[in-house]
């Protein structure tokens, strides 16, 4: 299987990069993972249930507090790209640094004392692949700033800060799933998360015991959740809930859908049926039957393609080809409009699927995909 990112970031010492750039030691080094959402796509911003798991790709942050109101952030991958601002200017941050700077601002809004920071970030979560590189950055920064400030904020509060940064500073109207997964997931398990209450429960995946693996196929068709497509789907979901007279589409039932038509019907039908799929998958996993969740994943893709209309030909081709070559189930993951697909497969079929989706992309004229095997990982942590 080819890999666009080989782990170089994991081999780099972000603490040493910090020392080289700033001439002093960081107060600590923290990391947070990207995530894949097993099932429950576009249910998070409808206050529903999701089932993500963290992956073994992480963002790392070396941080130290300053004694003034200046905040600096730099990337270990581009050490000359340094953004310097002040605490008062944090809400106006733009570009890649807005994810980190917006999180610092959101934590101040949540009650952390004002202080400047020096931050150096690095990571190997692929950008734009639907694996939540932005939430990994936000979560690593949130944990770093909170712990080094001596804060008692719990992890759900840190997740809310990351979401606030994404919504109010970056301008992406995302739900809280990504940040919660990055902060709360346990190794070997998915996280059943109620996006209204943030009540969370671990659900063991049992993949290795069943001889199964998860592949993430990055189509390299890039997407941006701050653009109009995602916002349009969220607006339609809100309009459908209002038309049905419910607080959010998580509260809608299949019987209610007869009151809608056209676009609002399709958007609402996806959310209602996806909610049901989440709970069926949880029941199968808790029953020790992970191989049987495949059809639910594939049904999710069909709903995202036909009702929520967030798929693209490159994603559809991966799903179709993976199923033809032995996958048990497959679906797009992330917001859609590009990014990646998740493929559940017997381990013995993984290489055949990787080759087949690569050949199909060449025939269809799509970018060459990158296929990665991912493993359920633990959430954000202090490295040292």
Automatic annotation (TrEMBL):
Keyword Lipid metabolism: no
Record EC number: 2.7.1.6
GO MF terms, alphabetically ordered: galactokinase activity
Stored SUPFAM superfamilies: GHMP Kinase, C-terminal domain, Ribosomal protein S5 domain 2-like
InterPro entries in alphabetical order: Galactokinase, GalKase_N, GHMP_kinase_C_dom, GHMP_kinase_C_sf, GHMP_kinase_N_dom, GHMP_knse_ATP-bd_CS, Mevalonate/galactokinase, Ribosomal_Su5_D2-typ_SF
Top-tier EC class: transferase
PROSITE patterns xref list: GHMP_KINASES_ATP
All residue ranges annotated as the Galactokinase N-terminal domain in the record: 17-63
Residues of the GHMP kinase C-terminal domain: 283-359
Pfam hit, one: GHMP_kinases_N
UniProt KW keywords: ATP-binding, Carbohydrate metabolism, Galactose metabolism, Kinase, Nucleotide-binding, Transferase
Annotated GHMP kinase N-terminal domain residues: 99-184
Superkingdom of origin: Bacteria
Family: Belongs to the GHMP kinase family. GalK subfamily.
Name of the featured protein: Galactokinase
Species for this entry: Actinomycetospora chibensis
């Amino acid at each position: 299987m080819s890999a666009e990112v080989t782990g170089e970031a994991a081999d780099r010492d972000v603490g040493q990069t910090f020392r080289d750039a700033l001439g002093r030691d960081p107060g600590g080094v923290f990391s947070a993972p990207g995530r894949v959402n097993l099932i429950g796509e576009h249910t998070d911003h409808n206050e529903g249930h999701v089932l993500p798991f963290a992956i073994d790709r992480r963002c790392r942050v070396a941080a130290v507090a300053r004694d003034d109101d200046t905040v600096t952030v730099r990337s270990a991958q581009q050490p000359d790209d340094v953004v310097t601002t002040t605490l008062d200017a944090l809400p106006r941050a733009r570009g890649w640094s807005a994810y980190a700077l917006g999180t610092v601002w959101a934590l101040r809004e949540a009650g952390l004392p004002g202080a400047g920071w020096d931050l150096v970030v690095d990571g190997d979560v692929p950008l734009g692949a639907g694996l939540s590189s932005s939430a990994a950055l936000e979560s690593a920064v949130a944990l770093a700033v909170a712990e080094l400030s001596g804060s008692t904020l719990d992890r759900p509060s840190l997740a809310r800060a990351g979401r606030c940064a994404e919504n109010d500073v970056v301008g992406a109207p995302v739900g809280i799933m990504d940040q919660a997964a990055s902060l709360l997931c346990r190794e070997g398990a998915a996280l059943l998360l109620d996006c209204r209450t943030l009540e969370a429960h671990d659900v063991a995946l049992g993949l290795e015991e069943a001889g199964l693996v998860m592949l993430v196929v990055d189509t390299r068709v890039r997407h941006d959740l701050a653009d109009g497509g995602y916002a349009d789907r969220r607006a339609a979901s809100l309009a459908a809930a209002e038309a049905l007279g419910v607080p959010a589409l998580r509260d809608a039932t299949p019987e209610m859908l007869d009151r809608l038509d056209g676009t609002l019907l399709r958007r609402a039908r996806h959310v209602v049926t996806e909610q049901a799929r989440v709970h069926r998958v949880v029941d199968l996993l808790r029953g020790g039957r992970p191989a049987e969740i495949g059809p639910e994943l594939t049904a999710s893709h069909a709903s995202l393609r036909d009702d929520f209309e967030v798929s693209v030909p490159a994603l559809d081709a991966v799903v179709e080809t993976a199923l033809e070559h032995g996958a048990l189930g497959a679906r797009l993951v992330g917001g859609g409009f590009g990014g990646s697909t998740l493929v559940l497969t017997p381990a013995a079929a993984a290489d055949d699927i990787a080759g087949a989706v690569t050949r199909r992309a060449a025939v269809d004229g799509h970018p060459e995909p990158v296929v990665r095997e991912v493993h359920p990982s633990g959430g954000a942590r202090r490295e040292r």
